């Protein structure tokens, strides 16, 4: 027996990070055989065609021009007011619903999830997300002594599976009065799927229907981490207008993050934006989440908040950032297009990709297929039921041929 001094609830916590493991294997291979030979499709950040990490040039310029006091000083716990205004406005673009909104600064999108779990569920409660999901959702739930359950994201025709969502909502609401559902859209990690406007209509029908029982509280956490790489700005935000006239016992929370949209991954800056038809609920949202910030990390990164406010308040700079980002959106999409086209030709089944950093190929034994791919110097992330390819990080010339090799590896492993 190894000695443990951890409190009972903390014993045995250990983060087994498959992404980290796959990425370490890729680096080792590159050191041995040369970077040119290795396809590292594990990294969740944009790399250019020379495989260098991208910082949007105008973002870098503005960041470097900030006065030092704006970088080093403390910030208000709730966030700089100019930042909160910029984040809210940028999150909605022209699609602000008619509702009360309030915002609190967080340590990235992860911070939004943390606070939502802490303040809108009870210890022992179960949260809900789709069966394809970003692993840390579960870690965040477990660490807070909550559970995570899943509905099936796609039906047999690869459409959004409203029925599965509906039955899980009903099942969980039989056991608890409050239900948080995490929905990562548009440009979902790991599949690249985006809910269509009609998917949203059916989903909101389920929520409104469940909310007819006044003793229930339904919270939708919409994780928009990849929204800036999801297509035309207002088209991919059109669903937000649907958050008008919701019942009082429904709360929407947008998880805004600067990690991807502003390539500020490690700077840990985001905001939770609450949307409610009820003034009290909106005020309570600001109060309780600010309190949890004080108790979790105090204030967040002032420099990065100032950065967003500065960009947002200068139309020319804002337009320049959007232009630069659009080029990278194009680059990522072109890479994904190659894979999708070649997958079709190789009869390789993949999940519906619309946009975003990742695409997914379902597999019966993802670990075995990934290991087999190592022989071809291809490194991807094995998930529970599939393989995640980070098209954000692999240059086009290395994507070419990848789908065929995957199809072959799959056939060999599954024969
Ligand atoms: C689906 C999803 N949500 C949220 C995040 C949160 O990112 P951050 O906490 O850096 O904003 C990520 C980052 O990888 C993600 O993939």
UniProtKB/TrEMBL annotation:
Keyword presence, Transferase: yes
SUPFAM superfamilies, alphabetized: PLP-dependent transferases
Transmembrane segments: none
Domain of life: Bacteria
Cofactor: pyridoxal 5'-phosphate
One MF term in the entry's GO annotations: histidinol-phosphate transaminase activity
Keyword Transferase among UniProt keywords: yes
Domain Aminotransferase class I/classII large: 37-395
Name recorded for this polypeptide: Histidinol-phosphate aminotransferase
